[in-house]
Amino acid sequence: MRESLPVLGIGLIGTGFMGRAHALAFHSARSTFDLPVQLKLVALADADAARAEQCANSWGFERSHGQWEHLINDPAVHLVAITTPNHLHFPMAMATLEAGKTVYCEKPLAVTLQQADQMQRAAKKAGVVTRAGYNYQHNPMIVLARQMIDSGELGQIVSFQGEFSEDFMGDPMAAWSWRCEAAHAGGALADLGSHLLAMARYLLGDVESVCADSNTVHASRPASTDSQQQRPITIDDQTHALLRFANGARGTFSSSWLKHGYKNHLSFEISGTQGTLAFDQERLNELRLCRVGDRDGFQRLLAGPSLPGYAAFCPAPGHQLGYNELKTLEVHALIQAVCGNGNDGADFEEAWQVERLAAAIRLAAREQRWVALKEV
After folding, report:
1. CA-to-CA distance for 188 and 172, rounded, in angstroms?
2. Does the global pTM surpass 0.90?
3. Do 77 and 186 fall within a single domain?
4. H or E, element range at 332
5. Which residue blocks in 164-215 are alpha helix, DSSP H?
6. Domain span at residue 79?
7. To which H or E segment does residue 329 belong?
8. How far is CA 311 from CA 113, 148, 323, 326, in A?
9. What is the domain count for the chain?
10. How far apart, in Å, are the Cα atoms of 321 and each of 141, 218, 240?
11. Residue 157 maps to which CATH number?
């Protein structure tokens, strides 16, 4: 009987786009997978108490809180999901770790490397499961890509070309938001690039050194919609970097939130001595593969039920998974880890390594030189 399983109480902080995505993922994981625990949506918190209550009712949580501290201290909450603006990740995660509870924190882990380092050290000390929201690597096609790379199907890896571009800040008259302030966010490198850096590490391992350039294209933005007041912008609109991987491969990296026409262009091409593999998140159910000797170029590999992550949702190929299914797969891996059944996903130590790599890129861009990761 499901009722005899232990209960895992879920607390969610934040009611924006990512808050809703997390709520959907917990619901979907509960209905899609045969879990070793009962998921109970206990509490939802938001600084706007009225919105917290509204979303708790709409999203199926038992109660709401206007203060996040109350949620963390709620004895029925065992796992805390943090989906707030970036600058709040640190105090919320540290309080959750102090309470000895599982932390599921959206990316990037923190707004400074020092904060990220404290978080991963506190997580080790607490001995609890932690995860950062790098959900794209839970795509069954990305798991397949890593298997192909690890098995040597592409031969010795020689190059990585990665890009994550969107256009939601492409309009210079788009209003200032918390994403535009370094103390609260970190620019295109943090917002988009962190996903690509996490992907590069997931697929190819450690990066040893970087050289980079970044710039702010739009130096000011309206303080709010229809406002005549301008606020200065000091974070990056776009960043480009060269990467040297520990396995000998060389790479390129770019992140931009100004590139018109792109909505979720997390993409890469990985080339080896025996072939090339390509992916684009805007076509997330496909890989393109070209092997040595394929005179007709790339072939398309299409997601289907032969991939376990896909089969959990659909028995037929070509029917497509989406963003929310990737979030559900991330939540499923998290719950399995909490129950001692695997260790998939980026924990706080891995998320700190991503922040360390981003910090090296910022340093390289600022000083216009190659920076070894051991310097950071």
Report:
1. 15
2. yes
3. no
4. helix 323-338
5. 187-188, 194-204
6. 2-135
7. helix 323-338
8. 38, 19, 16, 13
9. 2
10. 10, 36, 30
11. 3.30.360.10
